[in-house]
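Please fill in the sequence for the structure shown.

STRUCTURE ENCODING:
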């Protein structure tokens, strides 16, 4: 199938309407690389800055067994962008195979600009597994919808930097017990911080 002027017009209209790359690929019937090439050529593929939440979600999706293509579709980014971000986060197939998770940390910008921002570090019991994590919102707000019933076993409020250090210490102590639940909402976060005794 050869790319035409009409294909370019269709691509521009779809992108301006908010279509993500993977949906355009499915609709137009061209390969990922062809669509990405023409998006770049027409200045329609802008790589927005990655957020801490997106980094965490990418790690969770990867360790939940999602392909790069699935990650791109869920996060609304290009396949190349996902590949480069996985390399940046040092997510390797060997780590994945061995079950070794990179520890998700807030960006250096967040640390440098808001190291003393109050953050909760918590331990939650979901019944058949536990979750360690940090949040700057109320814990009830963090788990407001779509999550199974839970009980907060412990939490303290401290600085962002101390909260992340404490979370990383806990996670390192239970990494051999890591558990990826299938009961979290589809767009939920925090899979990588779960463990089962």
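FILLED IN BY: designer on duty
SEQUENCE:
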């Amino acid at each position: 199938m050869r790319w035409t002027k009409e294909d370019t017009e269709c691509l521009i209209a779809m992108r301006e309407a908010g279509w993500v790359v993977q949906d355009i690929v499915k609709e137009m019937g061209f390969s990922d690389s062809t669509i990405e090439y023409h998006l770049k050529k027409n200045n329609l593929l802008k790589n927005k800055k990655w957020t801490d939440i997106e980094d965490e979600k990418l790690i969770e999706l990867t360790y939940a067994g999602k392909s790069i293509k699935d990650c791109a579709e869920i996060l609304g980014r290009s396949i190349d962008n996902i590949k480069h971000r996985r390399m940046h986060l040092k997510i390797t197939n060997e780590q994945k195979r061995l079950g070794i998770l990179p520890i998700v940390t807030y960006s250096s910008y967040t640390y440098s600009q808001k190291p003393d921002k109050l953050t909760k570090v918590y331990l939650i019991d979901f019944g058949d597994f536990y979750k360690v994590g940090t949040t700057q919102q109320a814990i009830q707000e963090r788990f407001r919808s779509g999550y199974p019933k839970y009980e907060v076993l412990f939490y303290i409020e401290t600085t962002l930097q101390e909260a992340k250090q404490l979370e990383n210490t806990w996670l390192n102590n239970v990494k051999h017990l890591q558990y990826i639940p299938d009961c979290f909402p589809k767009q939920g976060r925090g899979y990588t911080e779960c463990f089962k005794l």
